[in-house]
């Protein structure tokens, strides 16, 4: 039986990783809302974020702030390249969404293998943004990086809300999500909006990767677990709902952490998938249907 | 039965030459030519399944089509839908096509996507035309009544500053009074100089507004005539007026 301290500690850890899942889940939602596509390569953006940042810091000796400033746009460009090179041509050729989704899965594997060839299979990490720590609250240790994750996560949520609700492009993206034909009829270039969605989604993934790498590590194959967990978070939150994905990520992260403490590390994924199964059976539209950060899907 | 009536003295706004469209192997629209002059209100009549909606979808490139399109004399055949809106060709879809989870204000703001700097001015003009929308400004579009939704759909299209407004059955599903209000507003917009292409089931109301009528049957135009000439075509009069 785990002690109270162990449970509290796992909750703290769960919130941190859960927020990362939530950001990955929001990435899924952004692309799905704009295009109806589930981008299974979403996890790879997390991996690329951590990987590029680590390489820029260790091999070019860049300070972390500069490395992040280069990494996020670089990964956003990778997202745009994926849209231009894979998704758009397939859409133009009348491919079904299933085929496109499968192609994104293939892209995930391809990018992973290219990363393996380019950077090797050695796990990499870099130090916390703020050296020192952890902060002790009683007997619970809270790493400084968690505060960065919480702070940046909160800032991103606010920034996304402002983007989707207060900017012309954000509103246009939401319009595309609800009725793409009507959006086109009003002059909105839907294809360009998809490009924006892929860039935004990849950028979010990169930020998640940069934030989480100091607490764990990055390697060519970390994208898949983050992608799967982000996908589960998005489903728990009611797919397409950014706020729901964030809440779903937090719930998933906390449950995974509790499962590790209570049952052992081997039960982490059992917990995640059990949660998914229960949610799918009891709440087919997600736990947080009705709670929206600004975007909801009505693909047409 | 085809009666050729030209909108003499007016320059051409939209001209479609031999436009056709298919869904798979089914040709829903046979090669069809039509034109709309500047400031003209043209109505398209036809029974269900005649191809009226397909024609509008083809003209706005929502449905892939063959044939050539000209707008104010310039060929626009290859342009995608959003570029047509940039030229001033805007359509209100059947079923209104609102962004149901966005507010009235947001729908109108999205309507002004191409003219963001003029949003406030355009919105004031829309509220002048449809004062009820101002009262509902923060309500979601999906929570409006049918008539209000149609007002919003038209108002949103007007935010895009159309030169030619196409409407696919704007009175569909509306109470007679609301339908009459909507159609009389379209008449007012036309009197202000807006070119309108109207697909409408409520033929008597639409015919009061129209300067010209195309009759579509089995995917092709079978007649082009003035509204008052319908009386003299017994089969058309029986079908559309009585």
What would you say this structure looks like, in words?
The complex is a heterodimer of chains A (300) and B (242). Chain A is mostly helical and 300 residues long. Chain A has one domain (4-120, 135-282): ABC transporter involved in vitamin B12 uptake, BtuC (Orthogonal Bundle), CATH 1.10.3470. Helix content of chain A is 72%, strand content 2%. Chain A is globular, with a radius of gyration of 19 Å. Chain B contains 9 helices and 10 strands. Chain B has a 6-stranded mixed beta sheet with strand order 6-7-8-3-9-10, with helices on both faces. Chain B starts with 11 loop residues before the first strand and ends with a helix. Mean pLDDT of chain B is 90; it is low at 1-6.
Strand coverage percent of chain A: under 5%
| Count of individual domains of chain B | 2
Number of strands of chain B: 10
Number of domains of chain A: 1
CATH architecture of the largest domain in chain B: 3-Layer(aba) Sandwich
Question: Of all protein chain pairs, which has the greatest interface, and how many residues does each chain bring to it?
Answer: A-B, 20 and 27 residues
Side by side, the strands of the main sheet of chain B go 6-7-8-3-9-10
Shape of chain A: globular
Q: What shape does the CA trace of chain B take?
A: globular
Along the chain, the helix and strand elements of chain B come as EEEHEEHEHHHHEHEHEEH
Order of helices and strands of chain A: HHHHEEHHHHHHH
**Tally of DSSP β-strands of chain A:** 2
Strand content of chain B: 25-35%
Radius of gyration of chain B: 17 Å
**Multimeric organization:** heterodimer
């Amino acid at each position: 039986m785990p002690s109270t301290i162990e449970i509290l500690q796992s909750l703290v850890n769960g919130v941190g990783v859960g927020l990362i899942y939530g950001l990955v889940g929001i990435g899924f939602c952004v692309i799905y809302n704009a295009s109806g596509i589930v981008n299974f390569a979403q996890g790879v953006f997390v991996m690329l974020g951590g990987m590029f940042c680590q390489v820029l810091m260790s091999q070019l000796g860049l300070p972390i702030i500069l490395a992040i400033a280069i990494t996020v746009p670089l990964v956003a460009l990778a997202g745009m390249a994926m849209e231009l090179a894979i998704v758009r041509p397939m859409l133009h050729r009348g491919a079904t969404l299933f085929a496109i989704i499968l192609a994104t899965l293939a892209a995930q594997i391809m990018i992973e293998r290219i990363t393996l060839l380019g950077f090797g299979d050695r796990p990499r990490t870099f130090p916390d943004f703020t050296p020192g720590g952890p902060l002790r609250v009683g007997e619970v240790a809270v790493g400084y990086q968690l505060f960065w994750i919480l702070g940046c996560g909160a800032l991103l949520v606010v920034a996304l809300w402002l983007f989707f609700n207060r900017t012309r492009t954000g509103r246009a993206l939401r319009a595309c999500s609800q009725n793409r034909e009507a959006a086109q009829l009003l002059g909105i270039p839907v294809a360009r909006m998809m490009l924006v969605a892929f860039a935004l989604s990849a950028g979010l993934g990169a930020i998640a990767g940069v934030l989480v790498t100091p607490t764990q590590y990055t390697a060519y194959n970390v994208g898949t677990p983050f992608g799967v967990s982000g996908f589960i978070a998005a489903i728990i939150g009611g797919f397409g709902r950014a706020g729901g994905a964030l809440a779903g990520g937090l719930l998933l992260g906390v449950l995974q952490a509790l499962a590790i403490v209570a049952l052992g590390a081997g039960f982490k994924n059992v917990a995640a998938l059990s949660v998914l199964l229960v949610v799918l059976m009891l709440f087919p539209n997600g736990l947080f249907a009705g709670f929206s950060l600004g975007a909801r899907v009505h693909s047409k | 039965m085809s009666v050729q009536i030209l909108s003499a003295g007016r320059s051409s706004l939209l001209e479609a030459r031999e436009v056709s469209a298919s869904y798979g192997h089914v040709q829903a629209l046979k090669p069809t030519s039509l034109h709309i002059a500047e400031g003209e209100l043209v109505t398209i009549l036809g029974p269900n399944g005649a191809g009226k909606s397909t024609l509008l979808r083809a003209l706005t490139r929502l449905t892939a089509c063959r044939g050539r399109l000209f707008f104010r004399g310039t060929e626009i055949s290859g342009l995608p839908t959003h570029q047509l809106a940039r030229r001033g060709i805007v359509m209100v879809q059947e079923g209104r096509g609102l962004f149901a989870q966005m507010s009235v204000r947001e729908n109108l703001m999205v309507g002004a996507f191409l003219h963001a700097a003029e949003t406030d001015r355009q919105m004031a003009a829309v509220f002048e035309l449809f004062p009820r929308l101002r009262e509902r400004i923060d309500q979601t579009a999906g929570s409006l009544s049918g008539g209000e939704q149609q007002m919003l759909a038209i108002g949103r299209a007007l935010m895009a500053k159309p030169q030619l407004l196409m409407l696919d059955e704007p009175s569909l599903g509306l109470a007679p009074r609301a339908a009459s209000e909507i159609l009389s507003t379209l008449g007012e917009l036309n009197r202000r100089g807006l070119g309108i292409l109207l697909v409408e089931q409520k033929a008597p109301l639409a015919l009061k507004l129209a300067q010209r009528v195309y009759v579509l049957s089995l995917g092709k135009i079978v007649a082009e005539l003035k509204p008052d000439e319908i009386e003299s075509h017994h089969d058309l009069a029986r079908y559309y007026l009585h």
